[in-house]
Amino acid sequence: MTENIILWGATTGRAMRAHWVLQEFSLPYETKPIGPRTGETQTAEYLAINPKGKVPTLQHGDLILTESVTILGYVTQNFDTPPDFFVPYDRYGKARLEEWSAFIAMELDAHSLYTIRRHGDLHKIYGREPMAVDSAKAYFLKQFNAVIPGVLESQPYLMGDVLSSADILLLTCIDWALSYKIELSPLALGYQQRLHARKAYQDAYRLCYLTD
How far is Cα 58 from Cα 78, in angstroms, rounded to an integer? Predict the structure, then answer.
């Protein structure tokens, strides 16, 4: 594929996912480091590309993708797989990866962490609801601890011995949870440190968060 890749978005965990997978696959791309709630996502230029007015957005030729989970899937399925990255090709592996992705995106991100963001960080827009925030934190821990520690006790990554897109999703949620002072186990913290040490993560972090 020879079309240029353009990635819009910075300063959020969801944008970080897109930067990270592009770095893992060593793909050249143009970055447009616009942030949420800065007015940059509401310009006529950007809304013509992504009417949702959110980040990230990935452009590849005439294809436009506006959901981080889909961007992860598109990159991993359509470009040459690096030797230290896991992409499943059998139905079992595909189903397991899809299950992890759905669980992390819905149970940990949307149902838990974004509830905390809406009624904590963004309370001036959505209203301050301390009970909802506390409930979301408890739910995050319940769901996280139900499955994640048991897997990481026996293998370094969710799909086995090699990083996958599910790990990119999970790590951004772990970083987000810790920023909200949610206490996670030493096992989870060790996993976080292991992924933070990857060069692709560090390169993506600089592009996503150190934009000045």
Answer: 14
Neighbours of 106 (CB within 10 A): 13
Predicted pLDDT of residue 121: 83
For the chain, what is the mean pLDDT?
A: 96
Q: Is 56 exposed, middle or buried (0-12, 13-18, 19+ CB in 10 A)?
A: buried
Of the candidates 133, 22, 33, 34, the residue with the CA atom closest to the CA atom of residue 85: 22
Q: Which of 33, 35, 27, 24 is nearest to 167 (CA)?
A: 24
Query: Contact 9/40 with Cβ under 8 angstroms?
Result: no
pTM: 0.96
Q: What is the pLDDT at residue 1?
A: 61
The percent of residues in the chain predicted with pLDDT above 90, rounded, is 92
Beta bridge partners of 157: 160
Enumerate residues 6+ apart whose C-beta is below 8 A from 68: 14, 15, 17, 18, 56, 169
Distance CA 199, CA 63 (A): 28
Please give the pLDDT value at position 168. 98
Alpha-carbon torsion (52, 57, 58, 61), positive or negative: positive
Predicted local confidence at residue 2, as pLDDT: 65
Round to the nearest angstrom and report the end-to-end CA distance of the chain.
Answer: 31
CB 158 within 8 A of CB 195: no
Taking Cα atoms as reference points, which of 25, 1, 8 lies closest to residue 75?
25
